[in-house]
Amino acid sequence: MKVASITSLVSALVLALCLKGLQYFHLIKWNPIGFYKKWDLFEGSSKLFQWSFLILVLFIIGFVLYITLRYVYIIPAVLSSFLLGLFLSITLEWIVLDLPLQSSSFQKLSIPFIVIVICLLRFLLETANFHQKEHTAQKGN
C-alpha cells in the first residue's frame, strides 16, 4: 500500500502541475478548477485550497486505479494505458466543453491533455504491474 500511495501522490501532483501549465499556455480551453463554480462548491475558498482539493481527488482516483489495475498485468500496460487514457481524456473534455456529437468536435479536443493523461496512466500501470509481478515472484520462492 505504501508504493500505491506514493505512486498515486506523484501522479496527482504531476497531473495538477501539468493542468496548470496547460491552462497557463492556453492549451486547454477549460479551467481545471472551474467545476467548483459550476457545482457551487468552495467558491469563497482560496485557489490554494481548490487546487489542494483537486490534488486530493486526483490522488484518490489514481490510488483506486493503481489498486484495481494491478491485477490486469497480463495485458501490456502500453495497450491498456493508451486505450484507458484515450477514453478518459476524451470523455472528460467532451463533458467539460459540452461538445455536440459531431466530427468537428474532435478538433476542439486538446492533444497535449490527452498525451499527458496517457503518459500518467502508463506510469501508474507500469508501476502497478512491476510490483504485482514482484509480489507474485516472491510468493513463488
What is this structure's SSE topology?
Elements: H1 2-24, H2 35-38, H3 47-69, H4 77-97, H5 111-140
Helix pairs in contact: 1-3, 1-5, 3-5, 4-5
Commentary on this structure:
The chain has 141 residues and is an all-alpha fold. The protein is built from five helices and no strands. The longest helix has 30 residues, at 111-140.
In short:
Helix 4 runs antiparallel to helix 5.
Main β-sheet: number of strands, strand sense, barrel status?
Answer: none
**Unreliable parts:** none
Q: What shape does the CA trace take?
A: globular
Helical coverage, percent range: over 70%
What is the structural class? mainly alpha
Distance between the termini: 21 Å
The beta-strand count equals 0
SSE ordering: HHHHH
Task: Name a few traits of the molecule.
globular; 141 residues; mainly alpha
